[in-house]
Each structure stands twice: as structure tokens, then as C-alpha cells.
Amino acid sequence: MRILITNDDGINAPGLQVLEEIAAELAGPGGEVWVVAPAFEQSGVSHCISYAHPTLVAELGPRRYATEGSPADCVLAAVYDIMADQLPDLVLSGVNRGNNSGENVVYSGTIGGALEAAMQGLPAIALSQYMGAALVGLADPFEAARSHGVAIIRRLLDYGDWASDDEFRLFYNINFPPVPANEVRGVRAAPQGRRFGVNFRVEPYLAPNGRRFMWAAGGSQTAPARAGTDVAVNMDGYISVTPMRADLTCQRSLTELTNALQDE
């Protein structure tokens, strides 16, 4: 198997090293793992692409590249340049340091990388490790992802619903719970949720030179969410797997809206 991996925490991030190990086991002795990742941290860039300026791509070693761009830029660089002669069989994005459950999905560069791969017609999976108090002091805070990642991905590959004939190809979002590997309670298919009362916000900051800046800040990651959603099952110690795609249409409202807008 030929696997492309990327992330949004940057090419030197510990989570990317975990993903390299996962990808190497999946690829097998005769397979290949290609790394195309941001040169610097790109957390919170979502599905951003560097549309208005060129992006530097640097070869750091065999099958290892860094770009001065977003995770989506990295996927585009791989598809149309670095791996253009033979595209990957699978794209993995992560392992993110921190969860990409609930509202975090909308902002996540990790999700953006997997989303761009799906838009390019490639099977893709985003992986994130929920952090929390139970992981403080562990030698490896990614041990749940490291221990369970390969098995979950293999189950998804065997399952095989990638909707390749759909307008918008499916991809999968995996979140590992904030517990040690031996305390993971299992796996749950779960829809995206939202933490109650949690929003991103900005905090203004006045620099010594009088210029005004702002810091973006998130809310509590332990706030409750609707039962059965990705946030809720993660907080209960389960790995969540959520099928996603780029179509943002609210199907529930579409028919009623169509009727409301029809000319009498």
C-alpha cells in the first residue's frame, strides 16, 4: 500500500511520528509511506489553501517533504507534484494533539487535509488524540492512538464505504479518547456533536508600542454535548468514528425551503 500522511501540527510534531508508525504497519514491508506536512504549525486553518501566493516545497529526505502551507496545500502538492506519477492508495491526516470532535471539526487543519484528499477522489482518514487530565504524566500521551490506530483503520478499509461514486467522497474522522490505551472502552460510530455553550472567541491585547492585537481562544473541551455524539462518546472513553463529506447542505430544510420559495 502507498500511503500519504500529513498533519496540521507541523512536520516535527510528535503526533506525526505516531502516524508514521501507524502508516508503516498498514503499508507493510512492500509498501511506501510518504510524508508531506507543513513546515510550521497550521492549527486552526481548516480547509484553507494558499490561493493568493506561491507555496515553498522542500524535500527533506526520501519520501519526506515540508511545505510552507496548510494541510490542504500539502495534499495538493502531493497529488499534483510529489506523487503525481502514482497517487496514494490512502491519505492519513494527524495524529492531532487535541481532539477534533464537535465544533472543533469546523476549524481543524487536520480535518482540512483529509477533506482535500477526499475532494481529490482519494480515501482519507483524519486522526486526533483527545487530551485530558488522565493523560497528564504519561510518557506517551498518544498511546491510545498508537495502540488502537492500525486496527481501526483496517476495519474502515475492510468496511469499504467510501462513496466513490458520490459527488462528494466520504472521509472518516477518528478521535481517540483522553484515557490511557488500556482504558479505552471500545469504538462507536457517532455523528458530529457540539459542546453546549462553547464558542471560539478573541481576547484583545495592547502591545507596548500601542498597537492592538488579539488572541484567539477556545472554550472548555470537557463541556457536555448531546448523548451519542463524538464529543460524548469520547468523554465516555470510546473511540469515535464519524463519516464526513464536503457537502454542507442541510437536507432537512431543503424541501421546506423549496416549497417556501416557489412562486404562487
TrEMBL record:
Keyword tags: Cytoplasm, Hydrolase, Metal-binding, Nucleotide-binding
Function: Nucleotidase that shows phosphatase activity on nucleoside 5'-monophosphates.
Source organism superkingdom: Bacteria
HAMAP family: SurE
Catalyzed chemical reaction(s): a ribonucleoside 5'-phosphate + H2O = a ribonucleoside + phosphate
Similarity section: Belongs to the SurE nucleotidase family.
GO molecular function annotation: 3'-nucleotidase activity; 5'-nucleotidase activity; exopolyphosphatase activity; metal ion binding; nucleotide binding
EC class of the enzyme, as a word: hydrolase
Cofactor note: Binds 1 divalent metal cation per subunit.
GO CC annotations, alphabetized: cytoplasm
Native species: Paracoccus amoyensis
Annotated ranges, domain Survival protein SurE-like phosphatase/nucleotidase: 3-195
Cofactors named for this entry: a divalent metal cation
Protein name, entry field: 5'-nucleotidase SurE
Binding locations of a divalent metal cation: 8-9, 43, 96
Entry keyword Ligase: no
One Pfam assignment: SurE
EC number(s) stated in the UniProt entry for this protein: 3.1.3.5
